[in-house]
TrEMBL record:
Residues 14-44 form the SPOR domain. This is SPOR domain-containing protein. The lineage of its organism: Bacteria, Bacillati, Actinomycetota, Actinomycetes, Kitasatosporales. InterPro entries: SPOR-like_dom (IPR007730), SPOR-like_sf (IPR036680). One of its GO terms (molecular function) is peptidoglycan binding. Coiled coil: none annotated. It holds the Pfam family SPOR. It comes from Streptomyces alanosinicus.
């Protein structure tokens, strides 16, 4: 109901980094999965041992089970 652009989910894709100790950091938020994936891939290409991946923020906030 209403305009997508005025929700809290206008940047629903986040790039997460996990270091060797299992700590997770949010690297950034992006409007599209392709954009987020491009960032994650370019970070991965630097050869760090860290892991990067893309997650989607649930439409209904942090209570999302998916």
């Amino acid at each position: 109901m209403g305009d997508m652009s005025e929700g809290t989910v206008s940047l629903p894709w986040i790039v997460i980094r996990q270091d060797d100790n299992g700590n997770r950091y949010r690297v950034g938020r992006y409007a599209t999965r392709a954009e987020a994936q491009k960032i994650a891939d370019s970070l991965d290409d630097r050869g760090h041992k860290q892991l990067y991946w893309v997650e989607r923020i649930g439409q209904n906030g942090d209570g999302s089970r998916n």
